UniProtKB/TrEMBL annotation:
Function: Reversible hydration of carbon dioxide.
Organism: Acaromyces ingoldii
Name assigned to this protein: Carbonic anhydrase
Upper classification of the organism: Eukaryota, Fungi, Dikarya, Basidiomycota, Ustilaginomycotina
Annotated family: Belongs to the beta-class carbonic anhydrase family.
Cofactor: Zn(2+)
Amino acid sequence: MLPTAALKRWLLSMLLLLPSTAGHPHEQDLEPRDAQASTLAKTESLPIEVFPSKGTCALAGDEKLNISRYYAVSDYLTFFNHDENFHPRHSEFPNQPRGVVVTCMDARLSPEKSLGVPTGSLHVLRNAGGRVKNILPSIIISQLVFGTRDITIIHHTKCGMVTPRKDLEEALHEQVKHRLGRDETDKLFKELDFHPISSLEESLKEDVKTVQNHPLLEKSIVRGFIWNVTDDRIYRVV
């Protein structure tokens, strides 16, 4: 016989495996919404640990969940957050950021968790590689509207943007040219700068200097860190 916690997780996984013809997983009328919310609230957190595109997706615990490639990620987000008793409403968090964090869009990094600060205390700005030049307008707005004066830049090991510029642009170019044609692709790529990284330490120093010297930015505390994905720790570099 399954332990109570394992049984609840199994029941939840069965809910997600129901056909989608009647709506999203959270819309199945197997039990009243209040009862579903109560069940969810009493179980341990069930984060999706593997990106749910197809194949087998691992949930917290030992159970495996087969996920249809046609389910949208939003279906799962809606299902696990459908009731205010399950997660606090985001509107209740304070919108009083103490600082700005610029980091990579790598899904493994959770800046607020890594820095040990509560939700609502940071403006977290993300892009490929965590470079500041593509995100300067947002930093300026954070400073002028919210008065933030503490800027943290985080790059990380095993980053896909650590690659020679030529190799990166050629690889991306190949992905697009069959759809738009070579001439149109060449034109569009000339308008973009992906800011690839040749050295994590040098890229951090460059980004810190960019923020410190930009004329539209107020004098601020600017720090540069590297997040080591192997041990899940961040290290001060600049």
